[in-house]
Amino acid sequence: MGNKTFKKLNYSILPTPIHKLENLSKYLNANIYCKRDDLTGFAFGGNKTRKLDYLIYEAVEKEADTIVAVGAYQSNFCRIASAYGAACGLDVRLVLGGKKPEKATANLMLDYLFGADVSDVDSFEWNDWEERAKQLTEELKAKGKKVYYMPIGGSTKTGALGYVDCMKEIKEYSETNGTEFKQIFHATGSAGTQSGLVSGKALTGWQGLINGIAITKNSEQIKKEVKQLAEETGKLLEVTIKDEDIIVDDNYIGEAYGLETEAAKEAIKLFAKFEGILLDNVYSGKAASGMIDYIRKGMIKSSDNVLFIHTGGNIQLFK
Ligand SMILES: Cc1ncc(COP(=O)(O)O)c(C=O)c1O
C-alpha cells in the first residue's frame, strides 16, 4: 500500500467488480456505477470480509486462540467473524445486543451454524455491549485463553486497511477504463469503511467526494469517529487526512438505526427491479436512498459518474 505493505489473509475475492447500472441510470437520468462489495464472497460477503482479512491475520499472528466480536443480533460483522474464526481454527465468542429474537434467522442463524458461542446483552446501548464484551475478554484471559478482541464493526486501524485497498481498486479501475468518478456513496456506521476510504484517498490522490450516508448515529458523531480512525490509519500509511474529505449525511436514517424507511424500501425495489441486485433495509438500502435523492434533487450533474459501494448486508432480507 503506497510503499508500505501490510500482511493479511485472502478470504475475500478481490478486486470486487465495478459495473454500470445501465437500467437504473436510464431511469434516473444519471451515470451510476456499482462496486460490488456485496460479492466479496466469503460467508455471503459484504464490507466486513475486507476488514477481517486484516484483523484475523493479526489475531493469528498474535497467536490468539479465541476472538471476541460484538454487535447487534443481525450483525453482518459477527456473521463473517464467526465464519472466519471457524475456518482459522479459532474459538468465536460473540456478544450480541438488542432484543433477543425468538427464532434465530438470517445472520444469527449463520452465527450458530458456524459454531459461535453467543452471550446476550438485553440492551440497545452500544456501550453496554462493548462493556460486556470487554468483561468477557477479561474472564476468558483469566482462564488462560489468548483473546483477540474486536470492537463493533471491526473498526480499528487494522480493519480500516481493507477499505484503503478498496480505494486503490477504484483508482485502478478508473485508470484502466478511463472512467472517473466524481462522487462515491456508501453506508457508514462504525466509521471503519469510511476511514479506510478517506485514508485511501489521501494515499492514492483520488479526486472526488466520498459521501458516507449515516446509518447509526448523527453526522457530527460519525464525523468525529471517522476523523479519529482515519488519522490513526493515516499514520500507518504515513499520509495526512484532510478534514474536508470527511463528509457524512444523516438525512436518511429515518426514525432510528435498523428501522425501515419508505425511501430505503423504494431503493431496494429499484435496485432489484432494474438491476437484479439485492440491498437491505438497514445499511445499503438507506445509503442507496441517499444517492437517489441527491440525483433527483440535481445535486449530481447527469453527466457525472457516481459510484455506489454496495457494502452487502442483504442477508437481512431473510430475517
Ligand atoms: C452491510 C453493511 N454496510 C455498511 C456498514 C457500515 O460499515 P462501517 O461500520 O465500517 O461504517 C455495515 C456495518 O455493520 C454493514 O454491515
What key attributes describe this structure?
Rossmann fold, six-stranded mixed beta sheet, 16% strand, 319 residues, four-stranded parallel beta sheet, 10 strands, 2 domains, globular, binds pyridoxal-5'-phosphate, alpha/beta
Describe this protein's structure:
- This protein has 319 residues and is of the alpha/beta class.
- The protein has 2 domains: 18-46 and 156-318, Rossmann fold; 48-154, Rossmann fold (3-Layer(aba) Sandwich).
- Helix content is 44%, strand content 16%.
- It has 10 helices and 10 strands.
- The chain has helices at residues 22-28, 47-61, 76-87, 106-113, 126-142, 157-177, 192-204, 219-237, 262-275, 284-296, and strands at 18-20, 31-35, 66-72, 91-97, 117-121, 147-149, 183-188, 209-214, 247-249, 305-309.
- A 6-stranded mixed beta sheet has the order 1-2-10-7-8-9.
- Strand 8, helix 8 (219-237) and strand 9 (247-249) form a beta-alpha-beta unit.
- Helix 2 crosses helix 3 (76-87) and helix 3 (76-87) packs parallel to helix 4.
- The termini are far apart.
- Bound molecules: pyridoxal-5'-phosphate (PLP).
- Residues 46-47, 76-77, 153, 155, 187-194, 283-284, 311-313 line the site of pyridoxal-5'-phosphate.
Topology:
Elements: E1 18-20, H1 22-28, E2 31-35, H2 47-61, E3 66-72, H3 76-87, E4 91-97, H4 106-113, E5 117-121, H5 126-142, E6 147-149, H6 157-177, E7 183-188, H7 192-204, E8 209-214, H8 219-237, E9 247-249, H9 262-275, H10 284-296, E10 305-309
Parallel strand pairs: 2-10, 3-4, 3-6, 4-5, 7-8, 7-10, 8-9
Antiparallel strand pairs: 1-2
Helix pairs in contact: 2-3, 2-6, 3-4, 6-7, 6-8, 7-8, 9-10
Pyridoxal-5'-phosphate binds at residues 46-47, 76-77, 153, 155, 187-194, 283-284, 311-313.
